[in-house]
Amino acid sequence: MNAVQLDRIRRVLVIKWSALGDVVTASALMEDIAQALPHAEIHLNTQPNCAGLFAHDPRFSEVWAIDVRSKKRRWANSLAWLKKVRAGHYDLVVDLQRSDHSRFLLTLLWLVGSAPRIRVGNRGGLPYTHQPVLRDPRSHAFPMMQSVLQAIGIPTRTLHPVLYPAPDRALFIEQLRREHDLNENDYVVLLPGAAAAHPLKRWGTQRFAELAQRLHQQGMEKVVLIGGADEVDVCAEIATLGEWVVNLNGKLQLLDIAPLCAGAAAIVGNDTGTAHFASIADRPLLVLCGPTDPRRVKPIGPRVVAIQAVLPCISCYAKTCSNPDTHACMKMITPEWLAAQLPNLIAGDLRAGQDLPGSLRSF
Question: 205-217 and 335-347 helices cross at what angle (nearest 10)?
Fold first, then answer.
């Protein structure tokens, strides 16, 4: 395997389609690519639902999206994708997908002699010219993608996501914080929801409400609620606790979440896509896991900690609970315990790899 001369690479294609949380995670690797190849023209191929995240991203000369997984236009779109890559005359393709779909398309290009000269991807093997050390699909997406870059000599120094909101949104967030008296380190952000299709991922409205009450009693000036369309009722119910609860559900764009969280003392949430956007802020973030495996799903960042109960049925990925003690994995994380641990999270004393009292483990 020949070493890659990074200074000779002029055109780069980065492939990252989904899922949304993985795309946010991959933005840290995109930063590493941009830092290592400042002289190169870098293009990003993503899915239509993710393209808007990069609308103001200075790292990319072009962001293009062709839905090759469309049920109605799969073959037509796949042909359009092949033509687009072939016409790009890329020196390097970095495939950050975890599936074999992009690998299949790149193999077709390789078979007809039209693939980029240097090819590297998560899966390894053909048609890639360089092989990452880590290829275990059960591992977290982040170290897998880091291994891809390391295979071609790109240093992986960026440890949290990097995305760029529209310039005018900074003023909007500043005005929002001023309107609600959200002073630096005087508020905590709660992410109480998760997609309605995955109810077991939710810690529960009443538990979040009790946590908010306890944090306010401990001296936290404001509690901010962030959520999406599936969490309207959850946030509205918690907001009835008092004027010190700031319900921003439905008032933020996805890339507003990080600037809003940047002034928070801490963030607490379920395993949800919103938590990945919050991790961009690089603030103390605690993610509550039960039916999903934190070793695979937790947002990245040196200040992110995930906790999970120690039970035989954890990480079941089920949509309905089969445990006789329904939702036991989330019940074991109590608002009282969590409120007591928040100062430790803020101070950096609650860290990954700890066995915690109450049969909980941190990741």
Answer: 60
Which tokens hold the place of 17? 């389609």
The pLDDT tens digits for 3-34 are 799 999 999 999 999 889 999 999 999 999 99
Same structural domain, 141 and 175: no
How many Cα atoms within 13 Å fall on the side-chain side of residue 338? 31
User: Do 359 and 310 meet the contact criterion of CB atoms below 8 Å apart?
Assistant: yes
On whether residue 279 sits in a domain, the answer given is yes
Residues 127, 165: Cα–Cα separation, whole Å: 35
What CATH number did the domain enclosing 314 receive? 3.40.50.2000
Clarify whether residues 178 and 101 are in a common domain. Answer: no
Task: Determine the residue type at 71.
Answer: K
- With the C-alpha atoms ordered 316, 321, 327, 330, is the resulting torsion angle positive or negative? positive
Q: Is the Cβ–Cβ distance between 274 and 251 less than 8 Å?
A: no
pTM for the model: 0.94
- Looking at the fold, whether 189 and 138 belong to one and the same domain comes out as no
